[in-house]
Design brief:
This protein is 46% helix and 15% strand. The protein is of the alpha/beta class and 226 residues long. It has a seven-stranded parallel sheet with strand order 3-2-1-4-5-6-7, sandwiched between helices. α4 links the parallel β4 and β5. α1 crosses α7 and α3 runs parallel beside α4. The longest helix has 29 residues. The relative contact order is 0.15. The model has no long low-confidence stretch (mean pLDDT 98). Bound molecules: NADP nicotinamide-adenine-dinucleotide phosphate (NAP). The site of NADP nicotinamide-adenine-dinucleotide phosphate has 33 residues, from α1, β2, α4 and α6. NADP nicotinamide-adenine-dinucleotide phosphate binds next to α1, β2, α4 and α6.
């Protein structure tokens, strides 16, 4: 059974992955910003599962979280950089500076922060897979989501570069999860989001796919087969 580290477990894909990984017998280490949801998860899924209130955009919070986790749990076999924000639909010149910064801080710097504090332990163990959540909008574009697209294109580049740096035995991949009916999709698609898969249905497809990833996948641009 594996130790799975997931950022952004309070809602959406991260939440669905958490519930399904635990249901099939794995241990989940997760974080999110919403205290109420994190406390509820810890109550529902006790130790060895471990849920913490962490803002991935804050490097010192991620550092403290990694120190706690790496001294009390096995090194993650699978690190899922899932947490992200999307801007409210708007033309780029209408996106407030603070909102633009928040999307960059969580979607790019947050991923780098988690990699900075967890990947050295994975390298020491000589194994593990890092999955950085990208998007269809990390490989194509649409109007009114420019900040989000910029971050997901960045994730593709960051992950390819990381893949070239990792020692044998470790893999990093950018992953397009497909299109799933979450809060994030409802923000960009409105009521049209209801035509897409629900997160719990998606997780049943995504988990066997994720568990199958290994060193030979390093650097591949992947998409969940939904
Ligand atoms: N849904 C789709 O169709 C779709 C398509 C392509 C790509 N994706 C990607 O898939 C991933 C999951 O998306 P989703 O649809 O599940 O989004 P979502 O429903 O909005 O959930 C996002 C999760 O990330 C957490 N989060 C946000 N900012 C955070 C921060 N600073 N620190 C820690 N956690 C944070 C949120 O929890 P808190 O608010 O509690 O922090 C929440 O649990 C994202 O990377 C997204 O870009 C989704």
């Amino acid at each position: 059974m594996k130790t799975i580290l997931i950022t952004g477990v309070s809602r959406g894909l991260g939440r669905a992955l958490t519930e399904e990984f635990i249901r099939v017998g794995h241990t989940v280490i997760g974080c999110g910003r919403s205290e109420k949801e994190i406390m509820q998860l810890q109550k529902q899924f006790p130790s060895p599962n471990d849920f913490s209130v962490v803002n991935v955009a804050d490097d010192s919070q991620v550092a403290a979280w990694a120190k706690k986790i790496l001294t009390s749990h096995a090194t993650p076999d699978l690190l899922l950089n899932n947490a992200a924000l999307i801007n409210q639909n708007a033309k780029l010149w209408e996106v407030p500076a603070q909102e633009f910064s928040d999307v960059i801080d969580v979607n790019i710097k947050g991923v780098a922060n988690v990699i900075r504090h967890f990947v050295p332990a994975m390298i020491k163990e000589g194994r593990g897979v890092i999955v950085n959540f990208s998007s269809g909008w990390g490989r194509s574009t649409d109007a009114e989501v420019a900040p989000y697209c910029a971050t997901k294109w960045a994730i593709e580049g960051l992950t390819q570069s990381l893949a070239q740096e990792l020692p044998p035995g470790i893999a990093a991949v950018p992953l397009n999860p497909g299109i799933i009916n979450t809060d994030m999709l409802q923000s960009s698609f409105g009521s049209a989001a209801s035509a897409y898969l629900m997160p719990d249905e998606w997780a049943k497809i995504a988990i066997p796919f994720l568990l199958n990833l290994g060193p030979s996948d390093n650097g591949k641009q992947l998409t969940v087969p939904v």
